[in-house]
Design goal:
With 331 residues, the protein is an alpha/beta fold. It is 33% helix and 27% strand. The structure holds nicotinamide-adenine-dinucleotide.
Length: 331
């Protein structure tokens, strides 16, 4: 037997029900901003995404993993979409969990509920884009979409920037009161508009599951920042390709943006090439100027990457340990 002692090792478990109390919107924002910067500098890498139809319960299941060398965060989010959960079991249809590993040894370090985490990290991404790309004098926030994610998007945007008014359009108008309630809860007036009415907005977040564009060039004024968050699969589309092509386009990760993100359509139609899409981390790092004029339309194509999940899960584990709330299993 060698004289080397195995170091004590622990697994931290943070169940879904604890995430709301442990993860502040500010912590999610800081984690996502830092990891976007790391991705642009090459310090953090997303691994190829695995996504499979299970042939069981009509479920889609997959893994999004990555390694942030600078942050020392290694892991994956496993989960997907079980379309019959709600009707059959009263559970939400999207289900996921994050697993973190010790990058020095490969031993599992943490298991963290991934459902609320996903909504908060997605909202943090559009907020990061608003901070770095919107005009500082932006006053009116436009929303396209009023589903589950839209509420998180709206809350995070209102906490990031001092918007004075929210205007919103949704394909299913009966869903808009849910969004209005969030704005009003945050003390900001909400007004439902038609699509042309969105031209009053300084920032527009799109967060729908649409497969055809809703937001056209004529609906957007010069100087607007667009955060396009709904398109995360081949075929989905929220914004007219010609509008994207005449915008300054930024993204979380270029490879995803041009294949499964909003930019896929403009690229497929030959309107732009991959070189027209800039990782927002370059703006955060100061290696790209970002918005260069008050009249430019900037567009952030947020497709959602595994490193966002891992960075936020790591922040949750740290918060739980600091507050003495982590369930720790010695291994
Ligand atoms: P949801 O089902 O709760 O809401 C769907 C929204 O899309 C509603 O506003 C609905 O009215 C709208 N919609 C549906 N059909 C439409 C159509 N034909 N035209 C225009 N609008 C239409 O979904 P959700 O959980 O809020 O998710 C919204 C989108 O965000 C999905 O596409 C989801 O995959 C995506 N998403 C992206 C990320 C990311 O990181 N980028 C993360 C999570 C979810």
């Amino acid at each position: 037997m060698s004289g080397t002692m195995a170091a004590a090792h622990e697994l931290v478990i943070i169940p879904e029900g604890m995430i709301a109390d442990l993860l502040t919107r500010q912590a999610a924002f800081d984690a996502v901003e830092a990891v976007f910067a790391g991705m642009a500098s090459g310090a953090a890498v997303n691994f190829p995404v695995v996504r499979e139809a299970l042939g069981h319960e009509d479920a889609l299941y997959g893994f999004k993993g990555g390694f942030d060398r600078a942050g020392g965060v290694l892991g994956l989010k496993a989960g997907g979409y079980w379309p019959h959960n709600l009707e059959r079991r009263g559970l939400i249809n999207h289900q996921s969990s994050v697993f973190l590993f010790d990058p020095d040894t490969g031993r599992v370090k943490a298991m963290v509920g991934g459902n609320l985490l996903t909504a908060l990290r997605t909202a943090a991404a559009s907020s990061v884009s608003i901070k770095h790309l919107a005009r500082k004098d932006a006053r009116i926030l436009g929303m396209v979409g009023a589903g589950h994610q839209a509420r998180f998007q709206l809350r995070a945007a209102l906490e990031t920037h001092a918007f004075e008014q929210v205007i919103g359009w949704n394909y299913h108008p009966e869903m808009l009161p849910g969004l209005a309630a969030v704005a009003e809860e945050m003390g900001v007036a909400f007004r439902a508009v038609d699509l042309p009415g969105l031209s009053a907005a300084d920032v527009i977040i799109t967060i729908t599951s649409s497969f055809a564009p809703s937001l056209m060039g004529a609906h957007v004024s010069p100087g607007t920042h667009l955060a396009c968050m709904g398109t995360d699969t081949r075929g989905k589309q929220e914004v007219e390709a010609a509008l994207l092509a005449r915008s300054a386009v930024f993204c979380d990760e270029v490879a995803q943006s041009i294949t499964i993100g909003e930019a896929q359509h403009a690229v497929a139609q030959g309107l732009i090439g991959a070189e027209a899409v800039t990782p927002i981390g370059a703006v955060i790092n100061g290696t790209h100027a970002g918005r260069t004029s008050a009249d430019a339309i900037t567009l952030f194509d947020g497709t959602g990457v595994g490193l966002q999940d891992l960075a936020v899960a790591d922040a949750i584990v740290k918060a739980a340990r600091a507050q003495g709330l982590a369930t720790i299993v010695p291994l």
